[in-house]
């Protein structure tokens, strides 16, 4: 589906689907006129998905599905449709500007989804499951564990600052990891006053929680590394690309052909400059703050690593600095180059060892 530029050339009907947790609303839209033919709302169950397919069969054999949230609320439906050989178009970021000027309902959103698919110059297919989905799940779990561990450490540090002096003295001059180690080994003594006993209990609890979460994050990272090594080990061979960065890139890219060009991949990563000319002002661009921010962050990590360790990158930075470029602009340029190189690498089949 990614090679198509006009759905009207290949289908008679587009089924737009507005997805929610408990129900999905679908609308059949004529591909040539954009007129709504029929609509239906079903529950998010196996029977509900079967009803949607029967609904589509009543209108056209040549059809495509425009599903919002193929990686979220519409994931189960998307899997059912793909197993049945249906053509599914990804609409993870629907355009909802018209909502501000009119009514809103689930059937109307389903109609808008279908018409948006008809209007798009490029059509995207859903991200695949399998290894990609496994990486996505592990990344989410690891991110949650890392964030929670960081919160626990910050809370521990704050409690140490306000702790009674005999407790605070034990932590003086220690780094945060050292504080966690000391706090995890604290003992609650019955002879102490209630404030001290409570503070010690809280510090020990936070330290042990931070340790457990750090161990959980490490376990997730090891699982991520194993999947990346078995799927695309060539990514890990790139300078500055570790298992977390590689997994983030693979989750955004998904599979060959889903993203039609390296320019589109750069736009997805938010590293393609956006034209900002107007009137007599031309050749002007602004920073792209859209796209996949996790992917953008992964490219930023690669840039920082290469600036520090890669002599070629350091020479580029020195040259561009001499030309008057700011550090921020230089990093933006490097992100764009790295996005291009990663896209070309990903679109190639990895060489078997």
From TrEMBL:
InterPro entries from the UniProt entry: Transp_IS110-like_N (IPR002525), Transpos_IS110 (IPR047650), Transposase_20 (IPR003346)
GO MF: DNA binding; transposase activity
Ranges for domain Transposase IS116/IS110/IS902 C-terminal: 240-317
Domain Transposase IS110-like N-terminal: 15-159
GO terms classed as biological process: DNA transposition
Protein name listed in UniProt: Transposase
Protein source organism: Rhodococcus rhodochrous KG-21
């Amino acid at each position: 589906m990614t090679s198509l530029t006009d759905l009207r050339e290949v289908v008679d009907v587009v089924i737009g689907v507005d997805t929610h947790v408990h129900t999905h609303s679908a609308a059949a839209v004529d591909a040539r006129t954009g007129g709504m033919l029929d609509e239906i709302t079903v529950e998010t169950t196996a029977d509900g998905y079967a009803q949607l397919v029967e609904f589509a069969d009543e209108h056209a054999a040549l059809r495509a599905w425009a599903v919002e949230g193929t990686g979220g609320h519409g994931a189960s439906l998307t899997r059912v449709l793909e197993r049945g050989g249906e053509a599914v178009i990804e609409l993870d970021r629907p355009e909802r500007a018209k909502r501000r000027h009119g009514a809103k309902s689930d059937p109307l959103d389903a109609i808008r989804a279908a018409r948006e698919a008809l209007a798009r110059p490029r059509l995207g297919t859903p991200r695949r499951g399998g290894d990609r989905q496994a990486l996505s799940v592990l990344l989410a779990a690891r991110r949650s564990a890392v964030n929670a561990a960081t919160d626990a450490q910050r809370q521990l540090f704050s409690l140490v600052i306000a702790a009674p002096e005999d407790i605070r003295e034990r932590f003086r001059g220690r780094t945060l990891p050292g504080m966690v180690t000391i706090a995890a080994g604290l003992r609650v003594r019955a002879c102490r006053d209630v404030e001290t006993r409570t503070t010690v209990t809280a510090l020990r609890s936070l330290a042990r929680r931070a340790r457990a979460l750090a161990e959980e994050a490490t376990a997730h990272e090891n699982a991520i590394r194993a999947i990346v090594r078995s799927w695309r080990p060539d990514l890990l061979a790139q300078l500055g690309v570790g298992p977390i960065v590689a997994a983030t890139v693979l989750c955004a890219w998904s599979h060959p052909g889903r993203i039609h060009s390296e320019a589109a991949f750069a736009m997805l990563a938010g590293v393609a400059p956006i034209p900002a000319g107007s009137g007599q002002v031309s050749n002007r661009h602004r920073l792209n703050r859209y796209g996949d921010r996790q992917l953008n962050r992964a490219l930023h990590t690669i840039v920082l690593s290469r600036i520090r360790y890669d002599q070629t990158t350091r020479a580029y930075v020195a040259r561009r600095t001499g030309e008057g470029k700011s550090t921020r602009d230089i990093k933006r340029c490097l992100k764009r180059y790295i996005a291009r190189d990663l896209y070309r690498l990903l679109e190639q089949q990895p060489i078997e060892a």
